[in-house]
Design a protein that fits this description.
By secondary structure, the protein is α+β, with helices and mostly antiparallel strands. The chain has a domain of about 90 residues. The chain has three helices and five strands, in the order ββαββαβα. α1 runs antiparallel to α2 and α1 packs across α3. The chain starts with 6 loop residues before the first strand and ends with a helix.
Length: about 160
């Protein structure tokens, strides 16, 4: 027997090692790959990096996303729906998937290739505008209740 339990090639197995953030291409190296003739997004050498303003916008979106998830997930909202500019179809993103897409945009300078979700329940997703309005409403309510406390005379 070569190596003991939890070892591969004489090297100890480490939890989480080999885990990928990106999905693994099931056709990688397959001569019958249906996407073989398509442009490889990894070859985008002429792709412009994000400008400082674009980068700041993505960072703000990530910060907003954390707030929206904290407020909306407890009431059953699973994520956000975004109208795709390319295919003009709504795309449903769970919180973690959207967060991963934004982080990918920060690191690579380009959005991920996307597909519409399989049979999502639209009742569990809201738009960015709805999430922003909800967060603003919660903020305003908390601010107003805080002002009421300071206006009352102390005993």
């Amino acid at each position: 027997m070569t190596g003991g339990l939890g070892q591969a090639g004489g090297r100890a197995w480490v939890y989480g090692e080999g885990v990928h953030d990106e999905p693994i291409d099931p056709f990688n190296g397959d001569p019958a790959d249906p996407a073989a003739g398509l442009h490889d997004p990894g070859d985008d050498t002429g792709l412009e990096p994000l400008t400082d303003v674009e980068r700041q916008d993505v960072l703000e979106d990530l910060a907003d996303l954390e707030i929206y998830q904290a407020l909306l997930a407890p009431i059953g909202v699973r994520g956000l729906v975004i109208e795709c500019e390319d295919c003009h179809e709504p795309h449903y993103f769970d919180w973690d998937l959207l967060r991963g897409n934004l982080r990918h945009l920060l690191s690579s300078g380009r959005p991920r290739v996307h597909e519409p979700a399989y049979d999502p329940d639209p009742d569990h997703y809201v738009t960015w505008d709805y999430a922003r309005g909800y967060a603003d409403g919660v903020h305003d309510t908390l601010t107003e209740s805080g002002e009421d406390d300071t206006d009352s005379p102390s005993a």
